[in-house]
């Protein structure tokens, strides 16, 4: 499913603006000023000095943003903290934002965290979000995931769509309680939050309402969410909440690929290779597979090697005649699992290059050397598909000897169908008995293990 999530920064309580309409030209330090701003700044500073808290906050804004005179970040922070100490929540958030960002005053996460905590305890949802993030990241306070989750839940209950999104996404990723996760994601999706919309569609995929899945992923894609765009393509490809339309599916796949989604690059390559929703174009397919392979997608690396092997036009330049050998090795390196190696070897065994075919057989032997029944059964089936009946029989028998019930059943079927030659006239009957005994001994089948 789902691509890593970036840390969410604490919210900025107010936008910073420089200059204002009706300015009388550049003032000190190049900042636009007006007579009204100059007078307002002086008045705010005067009233702040007299203990007026709202004036202290306003002075902080003007000093921070350079309104009515040159910027004075230190003075701004001082005035924000005076107002914050007097209980003005927006000033608490402004002070915390300055101390967190570090672009105007030195970073002080501990001090910022205390202002966020004070704002949170005062019931402000933005403060709750910032305080939850501080505890999640351990910036300025000891990391406390449980308390972070608690404050996100409080903020979500108070009606914050961002808190519902963050908590819903977190629970969806960690496998939290499904009912609560869905409630949070639905609330955030209804408010147009794209991350929540993607997670909702992804979480419901396969066992949820198709119309809800399509609607959620449409919201995510419309907001430019990369993975949401990919999965909306799958909706159109598979008819989830909408009529199947390969061309529309391809357009979403390609859009997601251009947004950098590795799986979308692979899917776009597949569309070009197989002519799904777009004209078949092996050159473009190869290019997209290569892009995905560079991102570490093993399946794309296999297809890239395969296309370069069977279509000489892709390697027509001098010196590239045997480049597919290198491409297959790269695919094996990118996906070192037994499954990927076996699937890569399966493609290698179809090559017209004898060296690649020999290497494919060698890869299967390497997998078999693990001695694991599952690996032996895997390579046996690949070998059988490549009409290597002798090797397939050897590996399937070894898996059966290890007590693998599935291998015994498959071997019996292959012997009966003549796909694998019996070692002796009685082998097929013996293997059938072994398979039957293995089946009966499985839990719930009524055999000794199930009693």
UniProtKB/TrEMBL annotation:
It comes from the Bacteria. Residues 1-32, 419-451 are annotated as: Disordered. Gene3D superfamilies: Tetratricopeptide repeat domain. SMART domains: SEL1 (SM00671). Residues 419-443 have a biased composition (Basic and acidic residues). InterPro entries: Sel1-like, Sel1_AlgK, TPR-like_helical_dom_sf. This is Sel1 repeat family protein. It comes from Rhodovastum atsumiense.
């Amino acid at each position: 499913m789902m691509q890593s999530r970036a840390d969410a920064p604490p919210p900025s309580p107010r936008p910073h603006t420089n200059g204002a309409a009706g300015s009388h030209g550049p003032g000190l330090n190049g900042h636009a000023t007006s007579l009204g701003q100059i007078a307002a700044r002086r008045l705010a500073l005067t009233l702040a000095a007299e203990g007026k808290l709202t004036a202290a906050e306003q002075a902080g804004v003007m000093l921070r943003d350079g309104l009515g005179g040159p910027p004075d970040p230190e003075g701004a922070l001082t005035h924000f903290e005076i107002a914050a100490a007097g209980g003005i929540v927006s000033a608490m958030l402004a002070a915390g934002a300055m101390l967190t960002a570090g672009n105007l005053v030195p970073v002080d996460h501990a001090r910022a965290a205390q202002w966020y905590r004070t704002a949170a305890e005062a019931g402000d949802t933005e403060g709750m979000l910032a305080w939850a993030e501080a505890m999640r990241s351990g910036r300025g306070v000891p990391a406390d995931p449980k308390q972070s989750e608690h404050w996100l839940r409080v903020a979500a209950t108070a009606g914050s769509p961002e808190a519902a999104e963050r908590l819903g996404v977190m629970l969806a990723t960690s496998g939290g309680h499904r009912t609560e996760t869905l409630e949070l994601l639905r609330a955030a999706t209804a408010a147009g939050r794209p991350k929540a919309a993607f997670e909702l569609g992804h979480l419901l995929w396969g066992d949820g309402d198709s119309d809800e899945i399509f609607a959620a992923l449409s919201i995510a894609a419309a907001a430019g969410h990369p993975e949401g765009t990919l999965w909306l393509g799958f909706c159109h490809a598979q008819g989830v909440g909408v009529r199947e339309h390969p061309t529309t599916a391809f357009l979403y796949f390609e859009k997601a690929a251009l947004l950098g989604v590795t799986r979308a690059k692979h899917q776009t390559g597949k569309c070009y290779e197989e002519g799904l929703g777009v004209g078949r174009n092996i050159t473009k397919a190869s290019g997209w597979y290569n892009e995905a392979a560079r991102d570490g997608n093993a399946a794309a690396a296999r297809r890239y090697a395969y296309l370069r092997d069977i279509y000489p036009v892709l390697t027509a330049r001098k010196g590239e005649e045997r480049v597919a050998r290198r491409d297959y090795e790269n695919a094996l390196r990118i996906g070192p699992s037994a499954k990927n190696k076996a699937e890569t070897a399966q493609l290698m065994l179809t090559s017209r290059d004898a060296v690649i075919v020999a290497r494919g057989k060698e890869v299967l032997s390497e997998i078999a050397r693990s001695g694991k029944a599952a690996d032996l059964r895997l390579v046996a089936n690949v070998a059988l598909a490549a009409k290597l009946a002798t090797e397939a029989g050897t590996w399937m028998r070894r898996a059966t000897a290890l007590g693998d019930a599935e291998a015994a059943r498959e071997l019996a079927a292959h012997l009966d169908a003549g796909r694998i030659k019996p070692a002796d006239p009685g082998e097929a009957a013996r293997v059938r008995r072994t398979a039957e005994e293995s089946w009966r001994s499985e839990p719930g089948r009524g055999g000794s293990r199930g009693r």
